[in-house]
Write a structure and sequence with these properties.
26 helices; single chain; 604 residues; alpha/beta; 5 domains; globular; four-stranded mixed beta sheet; Conserved hypothetical protein from pyrococcus furiosus pfu- 392566-001, ParB domain
Length: 604
């Protein structure tokens, strides 16, 4: 592999490029930087064939394996009339299709998750090139079962995949077509080609496939596995439906009758199972407790979904019982009196009070800071803040993160914050979600009692919990703080288990054991190279122990070992550099330039 600058007219999109087909990608985020500085990160290319349909086309053409968005941005600048320089490119060895495809996939998966059909096409090409399912899964951090499921998309007719790739049908339509047999797919294509016919798409397609009675497995009140009813699932593993709707309704009605018996045994006066498809109209009913004659209404939808409305009587019954006796020794609540103010007057009052508080809040930044922190923790109708789930495709990676020293240190401080706020110290996070959110008022009152240094510590914990892994925020904050990964991380079994690329292993061997050792072991297998690296890091088997070490990808700022791309941290750091460069180009004023030390740390 070598680096070179190649004119734009000598480049074209390779067939192996994962986004090489269909509409041009959105490059609005790249254009400012490309206009100001051109392409900085090299495109990954390989020697390409000379087009037979272009007269006078010379040799020396190249196909873009990874970097279509950068190439599209350069084309956009050229169409605008801007000056376009030769583009920096990393040239793969000729004929290395599998490595080219893998590089393209890694780059795209690190940036934006591609659609499932694109994944299928790329995975099939990798398998045909000699990669096993396990190799593909390891390369992209998937479980083998996920790769097998994606490969199963081959059950779709080729033309359906072509329509999807061209943007003529959407992902919901494709997903529902995976439920169809080959004959149903052909029938659907006939409707698609007939301009005078109605062609169902999206959710309408599901009804068409099942004759209008598609019933999701999730609506079953009974044990689906025990009944052994036939299930049809889409190949994405997201939707499952009953193949025989009559068998479903037989089992579902039995389950409803069982629930009715339970309600009657619990003391409810009656359980009314409504006709299928009839809606429960809450405005025609009044709440009434079990002791006041309230009954249970069972609403059965055509979709198979069942809702149980507990404790209601009809409005007519409520009026009849409003005289006092409801027939069970109780009384029906009186109709509430007219409110003191109307809805519009309430809005008037609320908005004027809101304006006054907002005006006063401007002069009290400490109160505003505490209110903002309370909103993040407790939430409100206008706020949505989620905690970082630290999701990983493999359990050993999750265990590695959970037991590392950095996570332990953060969790220790989080427990202290939980105690200060009066929360359960065994709670997983300070920032709450869903039904676990505390009420705003007591939390805000507690924050008002705390001194500024303690509030700032709470903010740091909440920010850490809501900091998105792999984001530009992590890169920028880590560089600004000068985070030294050697103080927080050391190589463990999970790291070595995921480290399988021989080129990378040789480069790391050179880092920890020296270039002579790496050269002497250039022909060794990955397992032997891992053993050398582990011995150098631990100082065992006669090898001198090296200073604390971290791979280039994990440092701040990060770097890659090859030009093949696909390193998420390096891609995020590049986006940070582009954003800062574009900002400086757009705002050349001295006070907008980033600090020199920051520029030096971001330079790579």
């Amino acid at each position: 592999m070598k680096l070179d600058f190649i004119p734009m007219d000598k480049l074209s999109i390779a067939a192996t490029n994962m986004r090489g087909k269909g509409k041009d990608p959105d490059v609005s985020d790249l254009l400012p930087s490309v206009r100001a500085r051109g392409v900085i990160v090299p495109l990954l290319v390989r020697p390409g064939p000379v087009p037979s349909n272009v007269e006078g086309c010379a040799e020396g053409r190249f196909e873009i394996v990874a970097g279509r968005r950068r190439f599209t941005a350069v084309n956009a600048v050229a169409r605008e009339g801007g000056a376009v320089q030769p583009i920096p490119c990393a040239i793969l060895d000729e004929g290395d299709d599998a490595d080219a495809l893998e590089a393209s996939m890694l780059e795209n998966l690190a940036r934006v998750q591609p659609d499932e059909v694109s994944q299928w096409e790329a995975f099939v090409a990798l398998v045909k090139a000699g990669r096993s399912v396990e190799d593909v899964a390891d390369s992209f951090g998937f479980e083998p079962g996920t790769v097998k499921r994606i490969l199963a998309l081959g059950n779709l007719l080729p033309r359906i995949r072509t329509l999807y790739r061209g943007g003529q049908i959407d992902v919901n339509t494709v997903r529902h077509l995976t439920l169809a047999s080959k004959s149903q797919q052909k029938a659907w294509l006939a409707l698609f080609d007939d301009e005078a016919a109605y062609c169902p798409t999206g959710h309408q397609l599901k009804a068409w496939l099942f004759g209008g009675s598609a019933i999701a497995v999730t609506h079953a009140l009974f044990d689906v596995a025990a009944t052994k009813l036939a299930i049809v699932s889409d190949l994405f593993g997201e939707d499952s439906f009953f193949a025989d709707s009559d068998a479903f309704w037989s089992a579902q009605m039995d389950a409803i009758e069982a629930r009715k018996a339970d309600y009657l045994e619990a003391g409810w006066s009656n359980v009314e199972i409504m006709p299928r498809g009839e809606w429960f109209r809450s405005w025609d009913h009044v709440h009434a407790g079990k002791r006041k004659g309230g009954r249970v209404y069972v609403e059965v939808r055509d979709s198979g979904e069942v809702s149980f409305h507990e404790g209601y009587v009809t409005t007519k019954e409520a009026k009849r019982l409003s005289s006092g006796d409801d027939g069970n020794g109780g009384t029906v609540p009186e109709k509430p009196s007219r409110p003191e103010v109307s809805g519009p007057l309430n809005a008037y009052i609320d908005l004027h009070r809101h304006a006054a508080v907002r005006a006063d809040l401007v002069g009290h930044s400490g109160v505003a800071l505490r209110a903002m922190l309370a909103h993040v923790i407790a939430g409100s109708a206008l706020w949505r803040v989620d905690t970082e789930a630290q999701w990983t495709p493999k359990e050993d990676i999750a265990e590695s993160v959970e037991t590392c020293s950095a996570e332990t240190a953060f969790d220790t401080k989080r427990r202290a914050v939980l105690a200060v706020l009066g929360f359960d110290e065994d709670a997983p996070t300070v920032t709450r979600e869903g039904l676990h959110r505390p009420p705003f008022a007591p939390l805000f009152a507690r924050l008002l009692e705390l001194p500024d240094p303690v509030v700032m510590e709470i903010i740091a914990i909440v920010m850490g919990e809501t900091l998105q892994a792999g984001s530009e925020a992590v890169e920028m904050i880590g560089v600004h703080l000068g985070t030294d990964m050697r103080q927080h991380w050391q190589a463990d079994a999970a790291f070595f288990d995921q480290l399988r690329d021989r080129e990378v292993l040789l480069a790391i061997t050179g880092e920890v054991a020296g270039e002579e050792v790496a050269a002497a072991n250039a022909g060794e297998k990955a397992k032997a190279l891992k053993a050398i690296i582990a011995d150098c890091l631990a100082g065992t088997n006669g090898r001198a122990k090296v200073e604390p070490w971290v791979p280039r990808w994990m440092a701040f700022p990060p770097a890659a070992y090859t030009t093949r791309g696909g390193v998420g941290s390096v891609t995020a750091a590049a986006r940070v550099r582009y954003a800062l460069a574009a900002d400086v180009a757009a705002n050349p004023a001295e006070d907008l330039e980033p600090p020199a030390s920051q520029e030096q740390r971001l330079a790579a």
